[in-house]
Amino acid sequence: MSTKKHVNSPRPSCYAQILNIARIRPLLNTEATKSLVHSLITSRLDFCNSLLCGAAESLTSKLQQIHNTAARLITRTRKYDYITPLLKELHWLPVKYRSARYSC
C-alpha cells in the first residue's frame, strides 16, 4: 500500500466515528468523550505510524485535520477557534510529531 493510500484509508471511517460521537456528545461528559475518541479515532491514526515518518506535509495534514476535529469534539469548541491551545490542554502532539515520537 502506498503512503497516500495508507493516509486516505482511515479518513472516512474516522469522520464517521466523529459524527457518531458528536450525535451522542450532549449525553457524555468530557472524560467519556476522551475515552471514545481515543479508542475509536486516535488508535486508527496511530496505526502504522512508522510509515508516516518523513512523509510529505500534504499527507500528514489530512490526518491532522481529523486529529483537530476530534480535539474540537472533546472540548466543544467551534471550527474556527485556534487549535494549538486545545491540543496543549489535551496533551496531544501534532500528527507529524506523534509519528516521529512513536516510531522513528
Describe the structure.
The protein has 104 residues and is mainly α. It has one domain. Helix content is 69%, strand content 0%. The chain is built from six helices and no strands. The longest helix is centred in the middle third of the chain and has 19 residues. It starts with a helix and ends with a helix. The model has no long low-confidence stretch (mean pLDDT 87).
Task: Report how far apart the termini are.
Answer: 20 Å
Give start-end ranges of low-pLDDT stretches: none
Find the count of extended strands (DSSP E, 2+ residues).
0
Q: How many distinct folded domains?
A: 1
H/E element order: HHHHHH
Globally, the shape reads: globular
Structural class: mainly alpha
Task: Characterize the largest beta sheet: strand count, sense, and whether it forms a barrel.
Answer: none
Oligomer type: single chain
What's the average pLDDT? Answer: 87
The number of helical runs is 6
Helix content: 55-70%
Strand content: under 5%
Report Rg. 13 Å
Q: What features would you highlight for this structure?
A:
104 residues, mainly alpha, 0% strand
SSE arrangement:
Blueprint: H1 3-8, H2 11-24, H3 30-46, H4 57-75, H5 84-90, H6 95-103
Helix pairs in contact: 2-3, 2-4, 3-4
Compact overview of the structure:
With 104 residues, this protein is an all-alpha fold. The protein contains six helices and no strands.
